[in-house]
Amino acid sequence: MLRRQGDLSTRSNLKRTARTIYTNHKRSISTAAIGVMLTTLIASVPLRAFADGSTVLMDRVNRALRANDNLNGARCYSPAPGVIVLYGKVFDTRDRDLAQATASNVRGVAQVVNTLRTETGQWIAEEERIKDTLLLNGLQGVSARVIGSQVYLAGTVASEAEKQRASMVVASISNLQQNNFIWVKPSPLF
User: If pLDDT is split at 50, 70 and 90, which confidence band does 4 have?
Assistant: First the structure.
């Protein structure tokens, strides 16, 4: 309440200053210029009020996000009144949706823009890159699954040499720790 009264008194002072300028310089300053000056001076006060309001809203949303350990990587900012933009990184899409729901439930939030990234999204991208490379190297029977800092290789190959080649192909494009569950199943001779 004190903040609002301060803003109103600042507005009154700005109006008084503009009127004084106008009365002192009636002949040299046109009415249109005074109107523009008044508008500029008065319009600057609500911007401070918005900045204070958006800071309060961001603090509320950040507190709500920090209340849940799954949302530790999520942060927010407010580009407009009532609008919250989420950014950062969470574990998976379930946590991403939880962050959006948490922010939406905070008083004063009218819209949430969710730009959060997920750890599992990076895992999937790395997994696809490994799978594509295995296919390009003629290892159609081998699949890869990325979880955290590890890649799990599975499937069947015709020889021990192909199993080692699959491992070397993955090592050439990724620094992930390998867990090799590839089976060697020799192809029939006849």
Answer: very low
Please state, as a whole number, how many other Cβ atoms lie within 10 Å of the Cβ of residue 11.
Answer: 15
Structure confidence by residue, pLDDT tens digits, 142-180: 999 999 899 999 999 999 999 999 999 999 999 999 999
Domains of the chain with bracketed CATH: 2-115 (3.30.300), 120-184 (3.30.1340.30)
Report whether 142 contacts 154 (CB < 8 A).
Answer: yes
pLDDT at 121: 86
Confidence of residue 50 (pLDDT cuts 50, 70, 90): very low
- Whole-angstrom CA distances from 97 to 9, 119, 148, 158 are 44, 14, 21, 44
Whole-prediction pTM: 0.54
Report the alpha-carbon angle 171-172-176, nearest 5: 35
3-state SS record for 48-94? HHHHHHHHHHHHHHHHHHHCCHHHCCEEEEEEECCEEEEEEEECCHH
Backbone angles phi, psi at 154, to 5 degrees: -145, 170
Q: Scanning the structure block, which residue is given the tokens 């507005």?
A: 11
Residue carrying structure tokens 């309060």: 56
